[in-house]
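Dear Dr. L.,

I hope this message finds you well. Following up on our conversation about the binding site, I have prepared a predicted three-dimensional model of the protein together with zinc ion. For your records, I am including the exact sequence and ligand specification that went into the calculation, followed by the structure tokens. Please feel free to forward this to your student if that is useful.
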Amino acid sequence: MVIDKDVAITVKNFLLNYAEVHGLPSPVRNVNRVTQSIIFLPAEMSYKSVHRDFLAGLEEDNTLRALKYDAFRKLWHQLTPYIQIMSPRTDLCDTCQHLRNDLQFKARKEEEAQDLLKRYKEHLAKAKLERNYYNKNTKLAEEHRKLINQKYPIAIAKNKIPYRSVDAAAHYSYD
Ligand SMILES: [Zn+2]
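The resulting structure of the complex is given below.
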């Protein structure tokens, strides 16, 4: 089928509406759409599933039913590149999962969504702090290990280290 201006407008309006309904609330939701930041669709969705929903919403005799998936996806990238699908993450902690889930399915009012978004961002910031602390410590333990190896190379080689206290950090992690 020919992708003319009418087709483009219809697809664009569909995607804007779709993002309005399913998208994760963004703090700048009411800002002019041209300058709008990214809207995320839930990770369970895909370009294919959205295309299916698009077709499913059309009347039987609508010529747009002939719009193929590849053309639909191309229009999406051209017209509304700021509507994106959230990448599926399987390594999320419980808190992340709950907050993201609430954001997607439970937040009814804008204030609720804002609050959840704020908590999610705070959680991510804390997680980053923890990760930095962890990385710093494993690195420190590695460096201390090297120093000990340098200091007692012969004893280590002979597997005989006389008792003495060593001022060094070791790092243990448990899963
Ligand atoms: Zn988390």
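In brief: The pocket of zinc ion is lined by residues 92-93, 95-96, 123, 127 (CB under 6 Å).

With kind regards,
A. P.
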